[in-house]
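User: For this week's homework, look closely at the record that follows, marking any run of repeated tokens, and judge whether sequence predicts the tokens.
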Amino acid sequence: MACFAYWEGSPVLQVLSDNWPGPKGKRDPQWGDIKFQLRNWYSFVWTCGDQIVKQHLHNIDVCNWFMGTHPVEAVASGGTAWRPRQEEYGNTYDHLCADFVYPSGVHMTSRCRQYRNPAAGNVSELIVGTKGKVDSHSLRGARLARNPYEQEHIDLVDSILGKRPYINEAMAVAESTMTAIMGREAAYSGQKITWDMVMKAERTLYPPVLEYQASVVFLK
């Protein structure tokens, strides 16, 4: 058995959007480091967690849900293939690939990438077992009785109103988030990172001073 999780798409950069409040592609000269990084939050590790945590988390969550648990270790790699080390592009990677291992020994291959178009895209999950496979990519565009995004909100509201059994998925969400963090730390360090290591870690990504005009060291 094996699991595969993918989020391969295009960049998400505030400085390249029409809604960017500063000079096109640059920070407003009056902004301090903290204000600039909060405005351009998707480009910095301390504000978004990198793509694997902010975006690819959803695919990882599907695999964890299917397995009924979280991985216990990860080995990963990543880097920047096109994203220049200029301040407006932040300090996140533009590609990351991780190999997660569940307690049963089943592996999950996780791949996320934000390359400039034109580039092949894939946002899906694939579960391969001894009797067949489930490929969420093939389900896209399928005719369903109700939009699944609408259905999950209906289920949540009905749960709050007591119309159905109470739903509390906080633990699953927390474990999927920690799985993504484990993958990121494995890629950043080049080491095998275990679940126990990330649960006991005391590392913080926050700048020492959280004031709009504060200056912080830009991570290369």
Q: What stands out?
A: The chain is about 30% helix and 20% strand.
